[in-house]
């Protein structure tokens, strides 16, 4: 897998859609094979939420994008809880159907938005990793969508003027340049694997024994999602 260091200088409007489609094709068959009890498992990355809650949040967020429903306060904790509550009497299969439609139809909408919704696509992919962890499935924050996710992460951190970082990844051929280039501080340095880098940027705990090196920047500074 190769991700050139300078590939993120220009936003690719089709990238969010490719990321969502790749994750859809891997995640939905997995979810449809699980029992109802699995949907009640807690998700450590989202305290108080079950697998079903995370999936309902994801499906509702994508549906909002497709339907252009972004009222004031959308995606706040209160708004997210309301979206989940609105689906309380839905079957798990219905939630998965909505999620599949959203992962199919939201990509072009996000692409045309000029970048303001790109974080939604990355967040959906990260939540898919959260669900995999809860289900005890391998491949969390990895899989076929990882190259697109890393490229999207590069674009988002650059456009937001995030702390600069050069990442030498065990599983990527070329160094990855992340964050802004204001010159106000030298880039930090990360050495490790790509899923660990994603965990740090998503504010997720790093698995025990998954060693990495981070210099010139604190792990908390990398959290792109806040909170």
From TrEMBL:
Keyword line: Isomerase
UniProt KW Zinc keyword: no
Domain Mycothiol-dependent maleylpyruvate isomerase metal-binding: 20-105
InterPro entries per record: DinB/YfiT-like, Maleyloyr_isom, MDMPI_metal-binding
Highest taxon listed in the record's lineage: Bacteria
Annotated GO MF terms: isomerase activity
Pfam families from the UniProt entry: MDMPI_N
Keyword Isomerase found: yes
Name assigned to this protein: Maleylpyruvate isomerase family mycothiol-dependent enzyme
Source organism per UniProt: Streptomyces plicatus
């Amino acid at each position: 897998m190769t991700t050139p260091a300078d590939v993120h200088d220009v936003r690719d409007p089709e990238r969010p859609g490719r990321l969502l489609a790749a994750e859809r094709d891997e995640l939905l068959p997995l979810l449809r094979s699980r029992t109802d009890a699995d949907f009640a498992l807690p998700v450590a990355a989202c305290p108080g939420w079950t697998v079903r809650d995370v999936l309902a949040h994801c499906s509702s967020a994508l549906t909002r994008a497709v339907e252009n429903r972004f009222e004031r306060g959308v995606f706040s904790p209160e708004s997210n809880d309301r979206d989940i509550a609105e689906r309380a009497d839905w079957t798990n299969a219905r939630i998965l159907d909505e999620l599949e439609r959203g992962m199919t139809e939201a990509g072009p909408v996000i692409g045309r938005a000029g970048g303001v919704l790109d974080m939604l696509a990355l967040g959906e992919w990260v939540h898919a990793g959260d669900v995999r962890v809860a289900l005890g499935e391998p491949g969390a924050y990895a899989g076929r969508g990882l190259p697109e996710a890393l490229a999207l992460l590069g674009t988002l951190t650059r456009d937001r003027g995030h702390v600069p970082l050069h990442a030498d990844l065990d599983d990527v051929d070329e160094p990855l340049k992340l964050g802004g280039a204001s010159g106000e501080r030298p880039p930090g340095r990360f050495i490790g694997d790509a899923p660990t880098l994603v965990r740090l940027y998503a504010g997720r705990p790093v698995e025990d024994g998954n060693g990495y090196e981070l210099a010139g920047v604190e792990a908390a500074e990398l959290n792109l999602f806040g909170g």
